[in-house]
Design a protein that fits this description.
Layout lengths: L12 H10 L3 H5 L25 H13 L4 H15 L2
Helix pairs in contact: 3-4
């Protein structure tokens, strides 16, 4: 298996996290030399909003977990929600 081309460094950790959160990496498995700029988005722009009220301690735990992964809390919550719905529709 050929290795993909080296990735140009991102300016910030948030920029890198956003890129990997929003792009489909499957083309890299088929063709490791696929340019990152040509990777398709996982989904289109988010157009819906859901407000969820949380206890302060739960929000703090979510923020801490997100920070340790280089994400913002809403991104991590959205990822966890999507994972849960995929396993238990």
């Amino acid at each position: 298996m050929k290795l993909p081309k080296p990735i140009k460094p991102f300016k910030t950790l948030e920029e890198e996290a956003h890129f990997w959160d929003t792009h489909d990496l499957s083309p890299l498995y088929k063709n490791p030399k696929s340019p990152l700029s040509k990777l398709p988005l996982i989904e289109t722009e988010k157009k819906e909003t859901l407000v969820i009220r949380l206890q302060k301690t739960l929000k703090q735990k979510l923020s801490k977990a997100a920070q340790s992964r280089g994400l913002n809390p809403s991104t991590l919550a959205r990822m966890w929600l999507a994972e849960k719905l995929q396993t238990n529709p």
